From TrEMBL:
Keywords in alphabetical order: ATP-binding, Cytoplasm, DNA damage, DNA repair, DNA replication, DNA-binding, Nucleotide-binding, SOS response
Gene3D superfamilies, sorted: P-loop containing nucleotide triphosphate hydrolases (3.40.50.300), RecF/RecN/SMC, N-terminal domain (1.20.1050.90)
The RecF/RecN/SMC N-terminal domain, residue ranges: 17-343
Annotated binding of ATP, by residue: G32, P33, N34, A35, S36, G37, K38, T39
Naturally occurring in which organism (per UniProt): Granulimonas faecalis
Compartments it resides in: Cytoplasm
A Pfam family assignment: SMC_N
UniProt xrefs under InterPro entries: DNA-binding_RecF, DNA-binding_RecF_CS, P-loop_NTPase, RecF/RecN/SMC_N, RecF_2
An annotated Gene Ontology molecular function: single-stranded DNA binding
Protein's UniProt name: DNA replication and repair protein RecF
Length: 364
């Protein structure tokens, strides 16, 4: 069965002085007007499950204005276990604890997998490639601690190589060593990323079809390293990476940066064979992002045997009625879901009857 959210307790955290929110094992709807603190609660749920926040706050942002420290705590229960995860922020620092013991932020993911959708996620389709790479790496890292190590190791190697490339006294034999490290790290990251996107793609297509009807959404990893192809083994990828680094070395030395590797790759979304970014309507783009997120939930359940928690921040407001009810029935399938809204009318009465409704602001 796995762990599930039971309650969140916030003290002097963002706009909350003292707040306790209990969660249903099925759906919890946080309802209230704009700026009543709903997203702040969702942010806590992401921070204490994934170890990161989509808002990338400084510690001071998390502490209630005028206070010296803030605390957010999450109670998780399941499989006969109780786990308390907390974050204590001051204006200059942030630390995490699990069952009262200090843990590193990198040790937070893995306890309970979470998948978050926010309105900003539209950038996944419309924004730069960095966001799409980050999305794949973020989900991969939550699903598998090894993935996170691979990402960090590759980023460090590229950083060191770039530093050397910028050095006017660059020692080419040392550069050879960094090339080998970047080639191996890059190939390992490519192998993981391409494998993950390959397995997610059919699920995304299926979910999109369920929500939007007949249209065919395709998702594919676009590798920019010459010679790297789908289905290739890691050694062959490392050889292709090494060859590409060697071929690009003169340019890299001139630019002082590594011009080839998975840090330049992208994930393509296309609808009926046309790029979603330029051809899709706002609603189609939003539905595609939602399908990508719901596919992560399905992947976690079917492939990893985990029961993730789904966090949906303001998902309903820009979908039409048909898509809204498709989403409602989708999340009404036993996945623990926390959804924020300004308007309960977006949900049908059947969905609301089985949900815990938590009022915020003037609704409270
Ligand atoms: N450190 C802080 N101290 C005090 N208030 C803060 C702090 N950080 C954020 N806030 C305030 O918290 C309020 C609630 O923000 P939040 O994003 O949770 O609202 P929301 O209910 O999700 O609104 P919306 O429906 O508009 O998305 C905002 O007015 C914001 O300015």
């Amino acid at each position: 069965m796995g762990l599930a959210l039971v309650r969140a307790t916030l003290s002097d955290w963002r706009c909350a002085h003292e707040l306790e929110v209990g969660f249903s094992p099925a759906m919890t709807v946080l309802v209230g007007p704009n700026a009543s603190g709903k997203t702040n609660t969702v942010e806590v749920l992401q921070l204490l499950t994934a170890g990161t926040s989509f808002r990338r706050p400084s510690p001071a942002d998390l502490v209630r204005q005028g206070c010296e420290a803030g605390r957010a705590e999450l109670r998780l229960e399941g499989d006969g276990r109780v786990v308390d995860v907390a974050c204590i922020a001051t204006v200059s620092s942030r630390r995490f604890t699990r069952n009262g013991k200090a843990v590193r932020p990198s040790a937070v993911p893995g306890t309970l997998l979470s998948v978050l959708f926010t309105p900003d996620d539209l950038d996944l389709v419309k924004g730069p490639a960095k966001g799409r790479r980050g999305e794949v790496d973020g989900f991969g890292s939550q699903a598998n601690a090894g993935f996170s190590r691979v990402c960090r190791a590759y980023a460090r190697s590229v950083e060191q190589r770039n530093r050397l490339l910028k050095d006017p006294a660059c020692d080419l034999s040392v550069l050879d060593a960094w090339d080998a490290s970047v080639a191996l790290g890059g190939a390992t990251l490519l192998y993981h990323r391409m494998g993950l996107v390959r397995r997610l793609a059919p699920l995304v297509q299926e979910v999109y079809g369920d929500i939007a009807g007949g249209e065919r959404l395709e998702v594919a990893y676009r590798c920019t390293v010459p010679g790297v192809e789908e289905g290739m083994g890691r050694d062959a990828m490392a050889a292709a990476m090494a060859a590409a680094l060697a071929a690009g070395r003169a340019d890299d030395l001139r630019r002082g940066a590594t011009g080839v590797g998975p840090h330049r790759d992208d994930v393509d979304f296309s609808l009926e064979g046309r790029p979603l970014r330029t051809f899709g309507s706002q609603g189609q783009q939003r539905t595609a992002v939602l399908a990508w997120k719901l596919a992560q939930v399905r992947f976690a359940e079917e492939r990893l045997g985990e029961r993730p928690v789904l966090l949906l921040d303001d998902v309903m407001s820009e979908l039409d009625g048909t898509r809204r009810s498709a989403v409602s029935s989708y999340v009404d399938t036993g996945i623990q879901t926390v959804v924020t809204t300004t308007h309960l009318g977006y949900f049908d009465s059947e969905t609301l009857a089985g949900a815990e409704v938590v009022p915020y602001g003037e609704h409270a």
